[in-house]
From TrEMBL:
Entry superkingdom: Bacteria
Protein name, per record: Fructose-6-phosphate aldolase 1
EC numbers on record: 4.1.2.-
Key word Heme present: no
Taxon lineage: Bacteria, Bacillati, Bacillota, Clostridia, Lachnospirales
Biological processes per GO annotation: carbohydrate metabolic process
Organism listed in the record: Anaerostipes caccae
Length: 226
C-alpha cells in the first residue's frame, strides 16, 4: 500500500521524509491555504523540489467548468511536471474533464468521492487514483472504510487499473483497515502518520533495554565497546 503525506507544510514533509521513504505528497486548496503562502504554485514547486524525483505530487484544480478545468490542469502540468497528478473533483463537469485529460495522457486523481458509483465512473473515465473521503463519509452516516473497499472491489472486478487513494482519516484504525482490505494507497495527515509510525511505547521499551544493559555493563556502553 502506497503511503502519501496529506500536507503542504514544508517542515512537516521534510521531517517525515527524513525518517521514512514515503511515496509522495497530496495537497488540496484548503491544505495549501494553511501554509500562508499567497502563491500556491510556488508552494507546490517547493514541495516538488523537496521530495524525491520519483515521488508523487497531487494538486487540485479550482475551476468548475469542464473547459476551464482542462486548461487549468494543463497549466499546472506545464509548471510542475508531466508526472504531476491533477486532482479533479467528481462532479458532472469533473467527470468529463477527467475523460479529456486522461485521453491526453495527463495523470488524474479523482477526488471528492462520496459514493461507489461516482468512483466507478471516474475509473471508467480514465482516472489513475480514486480518492474517497473516508471520515467525511462516516460523518454523513455511511461507513467510509467499507465504501472505499466496495470501490476497490468494483473497479478491480471490472478490470480497471485505477487504485483507491483513501483520504480523510480520523484515526489509525481506519488506515490499518484500508491496508487489510488491499487498498492501493492512502494519504494521511502528518500528525496521524507520526502516530502510525512512531509511538511512545516503543521509545519507552528502548529506554528500559538501555537502563537494564547499563546496570550490568556500564553507563553509555553499547555492543561496540565489547
Amino acid at each position: 500500500m502506497l503511503m502519501l503525506i496529506d500536507d503542504a507544510d514544508l517542515r512537516n514533509i521534510e521531517e517525515l521524509y527524513s525518517k521514512y521513504p514515503y511515496d509522495g505528497v497530496t495537497t488540496n486548496p484548503t491544505i495549501l491555504s494553511k501554509t500562508g503562502n499567497p502563491d500556491p504554485m510556488d508552494q507546490l514547486k517547493q514541495i516538488r523540489s523537496l521530495i524525491p524525483s520519483d515521488a508523487m505530487l497531487h494538486a487540485q484544480v479550482l475551476s468548475v467548468e469542464t473547459e476551464d478545468m482542462v486548461r487549468e490542469a494543463k497549466y499546472m502540468v506545464s509548471v510542475l511536471g508531466k508526472d504531476t497528478f491533477i486532482k479533479v473533483p467528481v462532479t458532472e463537469n469533473g467527470l468529463k474533464a477527467i475523460s479529456i485529460l486522461s485521453s491526453e495522457n495527463i495523470r488524474v486523481t479523482a477526488t471528492a468521492i462520496y459514493g461507489t458509483m461516482s468512483a466507478f465512473l471516474a475509473a471508467k473515465a480514465g482516472a489513475e487514483f480514486l480518492a474517497p473521503y473516508v471520515n467525511r463519509l462516516d460523518n454523513l452516516g455511511y461507513n467510509g472504510v467499507q465504501t472505499a473497499l466496495d470501490i476497490h472491489m468494483m473497479v478491480k472486478a471490472a478490470g480497471y487499473k485505477a487504485e483507491v487513494l483513501g483520504a480523510s482519516f480520523k484515526n489509525a484504525q481506519q488506515v490499518i483497515d484500508m491496508g487489510k482490505g488491499g487498498i492501493g494507497a492512502v494519504t494521511v495527515s502528518s500528525d496521524l502518520l507520526k502516530s502510525l509510525a512512531f509511538n511512545g511505547i516503543a521509545e519507552n521499551a528502548v529506554k528500559d533495554f538501555i537502563r537494564d544493559f547499563e546496570s550490568c555493563c556500564g553507563e553509555g556502553k553499547t555492543m561496540l565497546d565489547f
